[in-house]
């Protein structure tokens, strides 16, 4: 093979071959690999999961409205302070906390930054970096997620300010014609680009392709859609040369639609979920941090426990939780916006965190954790934030 020219320079045959090979790329340097691997493994340590406290100002407003509390900067700060000043033993069950931008820069009453409060407990701070869903033109009400333009600069700043991981949510809907090829391809590529940018800046990306529970579909349809969506996601992550050992997946559990007439048992949900993951998720990924997807607190714990007990397929990853509503519903009700109820709210967080820690190890006794929210459903139609 002779020489070839690239940008005016004469290349040797080896250089020419490499410059045209589609499989020629470089892995992250060893130091970055070790850093990303360390963070991902710490987040998915045995018996631990994530507290998702990344509600936007508007979403936090809805949570506060449910308990009759005004949505002010100070009340949002006080509520997050309640979460982050819970007894240090909460770190036995919680490995990471996902924050919203506002919360990263807030402080407790004594002037300690929330980031420092979290780190003092041995818990890893993370940050939600997407800027919300936007309509996908030409689709049947589908969406993509925005926020890539300035993501690298923001990730660099968040890393500097103490965050070690990030989260980005994409949303897919099950309908007669959805999710469409257009939607699955677009959202998979957005997630892959986000993951790549995070890793460039030393943040572990949590990849969240949420298949919404809205609809009348049964468990079989939910499983098939989840498998297809995850196949698109991991193809895109591969295309973007994302270092899988330094990522985590935050998927939906495979559940039937909220309006499905047939009800499925936790064991049936577990089997569908575990099989779907086994068919699509590489063993290199350290762990799965499930979203609760509008399940009640107890449902989310029971399903996670059943998933960890399930032997329908091999499970080479940690299977744990990244819950928002399913960790906080009882906390909010116990607190009610009153300073004198802070301790009661913290006790609810400890109870539910411990229950989910047990569930992530397949040792939870169903129904043993009674909270202020009871078995209240936490489903929100077309959930956005």
TrEMBL record:
Keyword Disulfide bond: no
BP terms from Gene Ontology: glycolytic process
Annotated keywords: Glycolysis, Lyase, Schiff base
TM annotation in the entry: none
Catalysed reaction equations from the record: beta-D-fructose 1,6-bisphosphate = D-glyceraldehyde 3-phosphate + dihydroxyacetone phosphate
Classification via Pfam families: Glycolytic
Pathway: Carbohydrate degradation; glycolysis; D-glyceraldehyde 3-phosphate and glycerone phosphate from D-glucose: step 4/4
Known EC number: 4.1.2.13
PROSITE patterns per record: ALDOLASE_CLASS_I
Molecular function via GO: fructose-bisphosphate aldolase activity
Gene3D superfamilies in UniProt: Aldolase class I
UniProt cross-references to InterPro entries, sorted A to Z: Aldolase_I_AS, Aldolase_TIM, FBA_I
PANTHER family: FRUCTOSE-BISPHOSPHATE ALDOLASE
The family this protein is said to belong to: Belongs to the class I fructose-bisphosphate aldolase family.
Record's protein name: Fructose-bisphosphate aldolase
Organism this protein belongs to: Chionoecetes opilio (Atlantic snow crab)
Gene: Ald_1
């Amino acid at each position: 093979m002779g020489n070839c020219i690239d940008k005016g320079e004469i290349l040797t045959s080896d250089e020419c071959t490499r410059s045209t090979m589609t499989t020629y790329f470089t892995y992250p340097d060893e130091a970055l690999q070790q850093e990303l691997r360390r963070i991902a493994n710490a987040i998915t340590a045995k018996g631990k999961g994530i507290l998702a406290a990344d509600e936007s100002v508007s979403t936090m407003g809805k949570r506060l409205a449910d308990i009759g509390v005004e949505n002010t900067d100070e009340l949002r700060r006080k509520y997050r302070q309640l979460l982050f000043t819970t007894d240090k033993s909460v770190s036995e069950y919680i490995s990471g906390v996902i924050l919203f931008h506002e919360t990263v820069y807030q402080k407790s009453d004594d002037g300690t930054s929330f980031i420092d409060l979290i780190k003092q407990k041995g818990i890893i701070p993370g940050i939600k970096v997407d800027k919300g869903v936007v309509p996908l033109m030409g689709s049947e009400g589908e969406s993509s997620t925005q926020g890539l333009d300035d993501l690298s600069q923001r990730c660099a700043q968040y890393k500097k300010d103490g965050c070690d991981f990030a989260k980005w949510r994409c949303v897919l809907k099950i309908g007669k014609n959805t999710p469409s090829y257009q939607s699955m391809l677009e959202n998979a590529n957005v997630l892959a680009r986000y993951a790549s940018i995070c890793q460039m800046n030393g943040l572990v990306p949590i990849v969240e392709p949420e298949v919404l529970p809205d609809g009348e579909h049964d468990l079989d349809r939910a499983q098939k859609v989840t498998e297809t969506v995850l196949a698109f996601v991991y193809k895109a992550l591969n295309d973007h040369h994302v270092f899988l050992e330094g990522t985590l997946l935050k998927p939906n559990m495979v559940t039937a639609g909220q309006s499905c007439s047939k009800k499925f048992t936790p064991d049936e949900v577990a089997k569908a979920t575990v099989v779907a993951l086994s068919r699509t998720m590489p063993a290199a990924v350290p762990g799965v941090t499930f979203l609760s997807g509008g399940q009640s607190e107890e449902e989310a714990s029971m399903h996670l426990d059943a998933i960890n007990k399930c032997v329908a397929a091999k499970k080479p990853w940690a299977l744990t939780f990244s819950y928002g509503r399913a960790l906080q519903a009882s906390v909010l009700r116990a607190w009610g916006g009153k300073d004198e109820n802070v301790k009661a709210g913290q006790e609810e967080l400890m109870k539910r965190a411990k229950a989910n820690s047990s569930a992530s190890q397949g040792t939870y006794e169903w129904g043993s954790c009674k909270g202020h929210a009871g078995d209240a459903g936490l489903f929100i139609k077309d959930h956005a934030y």
